[in-house]
Amino acid sequence: MATRRILTVDNSADLSVLKQRSQTVESVDDALRALMDDMLETMYAAPGIGLAAVQIGELKRVLVMDLAREPDEPAPRYFVNPEILWKSEETLPYEEGCLSVPEIYDEVERPARVKIRYQTYQGETVEEDAEGLFAVCIQHEMDHLEGVLFIDHLSRLKRSRAIDKVKKAAKAA
Ligand code: ZN
Description:
Blueprint: H1 12-18, H2 30-45, E1 50-52, E2 62-65, E3 77-87, E4 91-98, E5 101-111, E6 113-119, E7 125-131, H3 132-145, H4 156-172
Antiparallel strand pairs: 1-2, 2-3, 3-6, 4-5, 6-7
The structure holds zinc ion (ZN).
Zinc ion binds at residues 98, 100, 140, 144.
């Protein structure tokens, strides 16, 4: 396992990758599992609760997530080719952040509940209902697969302010 560099919006080359649509994974094999292991390690090191493959520069429809909180045991989850089968009319506002938009947090309103289908780490296809933080996180991460960032859900002014802030912080660092 290895920690990989996370692409961020202040870097224009990174941003152009983050804006791309990720490709469907044809088979869940050992090479893909090695990628998922790297993604998980990178996410834990950041630290973060979710990561899409595009955030380490791999345009594949793969996500990792861990919503467990201390002192609970880590509960890593893997999602290959996730799809949303259903979303609720009811929405939930939640203050989101993103490892590719460091230190920026803002409220995004999304469907409160979704039904998803995906392949697991072992390549098994499963369906699952998501609500609460799980629903927020899976929708945020699935946006990444379409080249969409959470700041794209904000007003144009808020979005450009967010990118300026990240650029300034990167320069200062
Ligand atoms: Zn994100």
